[in-house]
Design goal:
Blueprint (H helix, E strand, L loop, with lengths): L1 H44 L5 E2 L2 E2 L2 H25 L3 H22 L4 H23 L5
Length: 140
Amino acid sequence: MSVTANTATTNTAAATSTKSLVVGGLTATAIAAVATTAVAGLGKLAGNSLAVNGAPIQLSGFAMLTVVFSGLGLILALVLARKARSPRTAFVRTTLVLTALSLVPDLVVDAAVSTRLLLIVAHLVAAAIVIPAIARRLHV
């Protein structure tokens, strides 16, 4: 009997932890999407071009890409929560490296320096919102 009760308790705790991770991650994703769009909008209002390789980036593109890549980060966190010995450490290390790598195209893209800086700031704002929100919900 006690084995069944322990298994049920473990399953309930895992389900609660997964739910917290998903809800927290999706909430952070939505906040980050709004924040990156605001950064881009403020940059545009300040006179920065949002043109890359001669083509303008729509404000909605900032939100869409933030949602897509934050969603991938959430999937990574869910996998690490099940597979890694120390999911929080693995998640933070991995996402910091991925964030740094995501800045490389911003540095080399054919765009004005102010546009490149705006893209870098947008990446860092999204990372500053999403990474801690997900990481704090992972076991150490």
